[in-house]
Amino acid sequence: MAADLEHKIEEVAPGVARLRIAFVNCFFVGMPRGRNASARDATPWVLVDAALSVGAARILEVAAERFGEDARPTAIILTHGHFDHVGALEALLGIWDVPVYAHALELPFLTGRGDYPPPDPTVGKGLMARMAPLFPERGIDLGRRVRELPSNGEAPGMPGWRVIHTPGHAPGHISFFRATDRVLIAGDAVVTTRQESVFAVATQKEELNGPPAYFTIDWDAAHRSVSALASLKPVIVTTGHGPTMRGDDLPQRLAAMARDFDERVRPRRGRYVREPAITNEDGVVFVPAPISGGVPWAAVSGVAAAAVAGTWLVRRFGKRATERK
Questions:
Q1: Mind listing the pLDDT tens digit for each residue in 119-136?
Q2: Residue 76 contacts residue 46 (beta carbons within 8 Å)
Q3: In the chain, what percentage of residues exceed pLDDT 70?
Q4: Domain spanning 9-324: CATH 3.60.15.10
């Protein structure tokens, strides 16, 4: 039976809540005070990621429920700038005049200077991967509202948390770790459902995985990032896609993924598998050519099914969003 795709809120840990908007998560970091809290009494809080545009109203609703009707975040911090993590930004920034923070290597894609390397539909062995050509790689332009994260690993407005640069899925991808209770907000450096599969996305089947393959542009960097996260030995892992995972065995599971990354996670064949895209603080420097024979196969065998699946996903998610209004 498919999981309910309604925009759900989950208490991950003290001061951390996960909101699922369709197939992607965003996070409210800060101790809640309730809807009746005044702006003067509200505790500082941060929104991590901005999900899809259809979720803007729900994000505002949850913010009001947790922090007060007039509450606004200290900042919005992005794990990275892919379309499904920035979709609601325009609507939110129209109401909240707050800074947006991201890693320096993400800024070209958030200031209108460049677009991400194209996704690779030949990896991942799933319909969501086949749909990748339909997903936008275009950057956005936040202008002066976006700022570079501090280089000392601090997260503005998130005391007690450490920022870890976890590239591979995106050049400036970051994760967050709170050592006091070993909570990890991993973004897409690892995810907890097989994001390449429409079935897994629809059911939210729990499964520890590497980054979504179709948008990962540097597999060696992705491997190093998984190893870095494993070294933190988290006991709660919440990610950009999929349910929150908990347990004393999580450090061992992450360590095993890092150790066996090439066999378990890295695709055997794909555009970026042997040769990564290269970027710098100005944007994309080099993109390898598509693999021979890969794109035509994906186009012929996948586009029709992807169109059907995409229509179903949009209608299902759109219906939920409409019902919320």
A1: 999 997 788 888 888 999
A2: yes
A3: 86
A4: yes
